[in-house]
Amino acid sequence: MLTFVGLGLYDERSVTIAGREAIAAADRVVAEFYTSKLVGTTIETLESYHDTEIERLDRQAVERGPESILQAAATSDVAFLTAGDTMISTTHVDLRLRATARSIQTRVIHGTTAQAAASSLTGLQNYRFGKATTLPFPYAHGGDDVPQSVTETITANQDRGLHTLVFLDIKADREEYMRASTASELLATVLDDETVAVAVCRAGSPEPTVAADRLGALADRSFGEPLHLLVVPGSLHHMEADALTTLAACPAELVEPSH
After folding, report:
1. CA–CA distance from 20 to each of 82, 85, 98, 103, 203 (Å)?
2. Percent of the residues in the chain that have a pLDDT greater than 70, as a whole number
3. Which member of 80, 91, 218, 252 lies 3.0 to 4.6 Å from 184 by CB, making a disulfide possible if both were Cys?
4. Residue 259: its pLDDT value, please?
């Protein structure tokens, strides 16, 4: 059996009870942290917490060379660990499909996601989010600006009155994580710097930071350690407007309910 376990958002304690039990029962435990990372812990702490050895996999081992995982899962129990929810990444969906094609039983134990946390922490309703997008480091896409696809996604959502979740680039192998201030500065060059956005930092930690303001103002602030993401709100319900002023310290003059 191949069991996919989402570890949640922040540290070794973010995993569900069902996830912890699956790890304890596994004959082999592997993990990948290139798509996201638990910034509040380390592999060593995870191993100690779960009292097991965890084999860390790189991108190539999962995407191009998963044979050892599949062979092991055909005859024993393998737990495949990731941060957040384990099925958010298409890489993990592909691995599950490969296992199914070989008649290997699979199971998914969900962890919470950054998207769910962004809605919960900001008070913006989850059903009013449109398509999400990812803002890469400029060097990562061969330019020095914001990719047109990012701008188009935000604009299309705004035209429909929908909120946009902007994931910020992660280069886990280089320990490089885009900050909300950097993202705000980049987006201010393609959107009006008066555009309101919400920084959500260290979701899932004991002390997350949530701050709403103009992009120009957010660009000048320091939000501390990663992981960060950004939300660009669309039209606001009166409760959402209240939530941004109360929960995210948004200046009241920047939020106006649409109904």
Report:
1. 13, 14, 25, 25, 21
2. 98
3. 218
4. 55
Q: What is the domain partition of the chain in residue ranges?
A: 2-109, 114-254
**Residues 119, 136: contact at Cβ < 8 Å?**
no
Output the CA torsion 73→106→61→101 (10° steps): 90
Distance CA 185, CA 246 (A): 24
Say what the pTM is: 0.90
> Which CATH number is 114-254 given?
3.30.950.10
User: CA torsion, points 83, 89, 93, 95, in degrees to nearest 10?
Assistant: -70
Q: How many Cα atoms sit within 13 Å of 198 on the Cβ side?
A: 32
The Cα 58–Cα 35 span in angstroms is 10
81 sits in which H/E element = strand 78-82
**Axis crossing angle, helix 43-50 with helix 17-25, rounded to the nearest 10:** 80
Q: 120-160, pLDDT tens digit by residue?
A: 999 999 999 999 999 999 887 766 789 999 999 999 999 99
Do residues 47 and 55 touch, judged by C-beta distance below 8 A?
Answer: no
- What's the CATH code, domain 2-109? 3.40.1010.10
Q: Is the pLDDT of residue 256 over 90?
A: no
Is residue 59 a contact partner of residue 112, using CB atoms and an 8 Å limit? no
Q: What local confidence, expressed as pLDDT, does residue 113 receive? A: 92
Distance in angstroms (rounded) separating the CA atoms of residues 244 and 214: 12
